[in-house]
Amino acid sequence: MKAWVDEHVPEFFRRKWVLIVGLLIAWFVLGRIFRGVHTLDLPNAEDTPTTAFLGDMAANIRAARAENPVFVYVFNPFRQGIESFIEVIRLTISEPASGAVIPLIGWFGVLALIGFIVFATSNWRTSLLSMVLILGCGILGMWTYSMDTLALTLGAVILSLAIALPIGIWAGLNDKVMTAVRPILDLAQITPTLVYLAPLALVFLIGVAAATIATMIYSIPIGIRITAHAIRSLHNGPIEAAESMGSTRWQKLTKVQLPMAKRTIILGVNQTTLAALSFVVIAALIGAPGLGEPIVRALSIRSIGDGVTAGLAVVLLAIMLDRATTAAVVKSNQIPLTGQPLLRRRIGLIVAGIATIVAILLSRQQLWAAVFPDALNFNEAIGGGADSFTEWFTSTFYFFTTTFNETFTVYILNPIEYLLADSPWYLTVIMISVIAAIIGGRGVALLSAVLLLLIVWIGLWNDTMITLTQVLMATVIVMVIGVALGVAAGRSEKVERVLKPFLDAGQTLPAFVYLVPVLALFGPTRFAAIVCGVFYAAPVVVRIVADGVRGVPKEMVEAAIASGSSTTQVVTKVQLPASKKSLLLGANQGLIFVLAVVIIGALVGAGGLGYLVLQGASKPELQGKGLAAGLAIVLLGIVMDRIAHSSAKRS
Amino acid sequence: MTTTTENASTDSGAGGKEPAISVRNLWKIFGPTPNAIVGTPFADLSRPELLKETGCVAAVRDISFDVADGEVFVVMGLSGSGKSTLVRCLTRLIEPTTGQVLIEGEDILGASASRLRQLRRTKFSMVFQHFGLLPHRSIIDNIAYSLEVNGVKKDKRHARANEVIELVGLTGYANHYPEQLSGGMQQRVGLARALAVNPEVMFLDEPFSALDPLIRRDMQNEIVRLHHDLNTTMVFITHDLAEAMRIGDRIAIMRDGAMVQIGTPTELVLNPADDYVADFTNDIPKSHVLCVQDIARPLGDRSVSTTQAIESDVIVRSVMHRIMSDPDPINVVKNGQVIGVVGREELTTVFAEDINKELTA
Fold first, then answer.
1. Residue A262 forms contact with B (CB below 8 Å)
2. Would you tell me which CATH number, out of the four given (3.30.70.580, 2.60.120.260, 3.40.50.300, 3.40.1080.10), belongs to the domain B69-88+109-287?
3. Quick check: B220 and B214 in contact, CB under 8 A?
4. What residues in A contact B131, CB-CB < 8 Å?
5. Which pTM value belongs to this model?
6. B23-70, pLDDT tens digit by residue?
7. A92 and chain B: CB distance < 8 Å anywhere?
């Protein structure tokens, strides 16, 4: 067959992109002819056998909670254990015990305590910054919400690290353990956050426990991955030397490997913390207290002002946690102090410690130090300002917010959605599988076909295609932006310096906070969800592409310039082809990040699978469909990840 | 370091005493079936053939040698020749496939894990190409590491560490950290760390390859000096023949995992076992390694004509001025006996060869 093709088909028609374009044209023509036939569109109230089955299962689980031994002896005690652990932290900083007016420590004491902890783990400058940022949460009128979020985040981080660090170290030392956990880590990475929520709420009830467990499921894999990497990427030299000097395995681990890996492990703590924060906010959907509450409320009633103040408080918390943990990384990398500077630091710590104790005592006795004072609360001014700014912006930039949005929807988004969702389902399955075969080979094509058929069997085909349309659109836009900015940043240090703070911010902020301003600007539309996805995924892609371009050997670029290439030629003929691997990795990561946010985009009108998941979480009679939608999201994620992955592997 | 032709036998170290290290038929095979090679016809295959047939690589291939007490034994070869694997097999940082290694008469391959640890903590030590210092520990704590893992109390181990710090010329740097030191100084720390336990045998794996040439020369002199003072047995790995000649009492040349030749520097230059060794030693000017006795004209039936005399084991280069400035041949004396004469004629022959080599190189 292959020999025949090689002989008779002109070279031009054997190129991959020509084949794919040809297929798309064929698909488009066939899709037009058979438009609306066998689209498997499922009305909102209707169930398929699979969703009905899942709905029954959910009902059974709900019924079994009270008496089934698995619940009585395993799940319920587990839930209560986690609940009371989190409650201890909340009673300390956010929630008054019954009968009391304030928690154990009032706002002033908490402020001082945070300042002291950051000072002890890094330096006074970061400590000061952290206190200012926390104060900012109060000024936004979000003190109690912020403390709830902080309490939940800290609790989840402590529990996550208690699990992630030992497993990560073990996986770092032992190849077999790594092989065993890797598929779990991979799956966790491509599963959008929203998918965990419903099943966990089903087992652990809506509330703090389910939210914490969901957060842990999200952040533990990140902690494991970085810790294992920290151990694995150590230089072998010192380890071999330690071995040659007669260390036991335990001595080697505690005296050499862990101290050397400390820096990267603390980086893992940083990533785990930020992941936990972003998830704790989203977990408001299953009853987590904190800043997510006002955001969800604001999204559902489109009250921009409230959403903005809460969103800003999330941003401040994120910056605070990021700066504090990053400063700890830097400090762990420094040579220990000796002599005079050490003495000065010890005195500083003692003074700060005494001041903190005084502040805590004050906050338990003086009203001004106990409850965040109204005089400092600018919630209404800021919220009102945001509202009127939104109004002014949307009316002034009508073209951008409405015309652009509608044009994009009519001329780009809708045609693609017709292609994927309004063609007969078997046409779409065949086309996607064939394209997968061209890009990634036979194995991936087969896997894609099987998983897509599973989605058909589940019965949520049409919704899946609506979601896929948005994911693909957002990914294309992310790649265009990512390649443009990534190449610019990779080629010029100046551009890189300008972009860096934005990229840092983009990677630090929880996806949830983008929803508010995007909703304000574009209203509840599919376009809004795509914009969110782009904002969330672009920083990662820019970074990966920039790293790839920077990694192209200098001699290669110099040789191209020396043989008379223009700048465009250097980019298109040398730098981009040479960093192809990074581009494909960027596309892969872009897809996964976009998928995660487009699903959440259901909160701002994106429809598709995300909408079903949200509905399932709030209405018991739709729970079966919600769970099925979660399953479909996972399957879709695997299909996209594998196709992108295999193309990267092939190159 | 003396250069004699006395111990010409390739397999045993100097003198009749028990050797410090004795290696017999040592093999290290990497690959899927390491235990199904030695003792089968596969063992006779060349490297590429073995890889093709079995998927295995023989990194160390049937190696035997002895190192005498207090000797500096240099193993040299190109990268990939197996020399680094060999030195790691001697202390079981890499587990050999088969063979025997005796250090001070003790069977190393048969030692239990805890005995091996004890040996590493007290009897032998190693210096690494990329230093292998612990970045999170100060210099003194790096040097005291072996003592620390052996349970020596802090003040005692620090006292010992301070002694070796002085010995290698790092006084004043005890509380610095590795990253604050230059490459040459870091390797002095590496040396000090290896010396801290007062080892009976030191293994040095290309210790100076990562240093720049001037520093390398300094460190080579340092090794010569330390060896002169402490007389520790050393196994020294290098890919630099000049370094090998400068430091080694005897040199072993490895190729594709096997030992090609073992001998004193002079032997390697004068009688290379094959073209491979000859290729290596070609660049060495003969006047740098030959002794007067190697070029002396036998006395024959002539009688002693002058009263001038040179000891027989002096390197030619170091006395060339004296020979050239004397119109008559000079007597070569060994143990008080005149064994021959050497004059301008012999010297010119050697130089002519050296210059010729230089020109064709």
1. yes
2. 3.40.50.300
3. no
4. 237
5. 0.82
6. 999 999 998 888 888 888 888 888 888 888 888 889 999 999 999 999
7. no
